[in-house]
Design brief:
There is one protein chain. The protein has 334 residues and is an alpha/beta fold. It contains 14 helices and 7 strands. The protein has a 7-stranded parallel beta sheet, sandwiched between helices.
Length: 334
Amino acid sequence: MSDDLAEAVARGDRRALARAITLVESRRADHRAEAEALLARLALGAGGKPPPEAIRIGLSGTPGVGKSTFIESFGLMLTGQGLRVAVLAVDPSSARTGGSILGDKTRMERLSREPRAFIRPSPSQTHLGGVARRTREAVMLCEAAGFDVVLIETVGVGQSETVVADLSDVFALLLAPAGGDELQGVKRGIMEVADLIVVNKADGDLKPAAERTRADYAGALRLLRRRPQDPEGFPKAMTVSALEGGGIAGVWDEISALVDWRRVHGHWAQRRAAQARHWFFEDVRQGVLARLETPSARALLGAMAEDVVAGRVLPSEAARQVLDRLDRSAREPE
């Protein structure tokens, strides 16, 4: 089945791509094995040649800033130039039920009808960082399907939102026109990883406020240390009107210039290699945590937790005993 699905994905079949993403998002052990086989098959590409690399653009922003409107306007501009665009929109999941509304496809009605576009909403499943657990693998599938640009829309600005920078080539932070208090509300960490700060809604009565906000952020960016992977003038702040389309083409021009510069100077390959290393360690960490979900591990944790609550053992000592037991069981022959 994986060979047939791989061939369909490589042909650019959007239904096959949707099925493939569903497969890699599944938590079932048999599906994980199929997903890994599928990804390995697609990584080889046609004739043993890996598929071309897409430009991966991470996009975050405060709630209500107009991320979906911006993505639709930006995506339509790109498809109008003949490019194929995939949108991976991560929606927040309920911490209680795990459910998610997944409304991005309805908010991007025009783009969803565009033959050169593909929109896939996914639940974050309470995974920190504003992205879903398997977003990186979904990006790889979109590249294998021949998309030129992959847009990764995150849940929204938060403490751990910088994770999207570890799976994108360019990271844009979308903001709305506001007073100086807005600048205080954005975490320094996300400012330090952003390549572009895009102030949306620069139209009508909000246009002067948008320009003032852009100037505020441009001033804040000058206080940050210049990164070695940036050419002169980056990171930078600019204004757009997603509603009217003003400045949208300029955002693409800046992204293209930044990507070209990083490729020429070797930073593109270095960034991709660093990201592969990061996600290797992340998968190892997640695999270790998954071992705590086995029935035997859960029983051990429950018993030790009762001892901790009763005061028979200190939390640190109980944790050490659990880890020792798990380590011994991992070394025992099956």
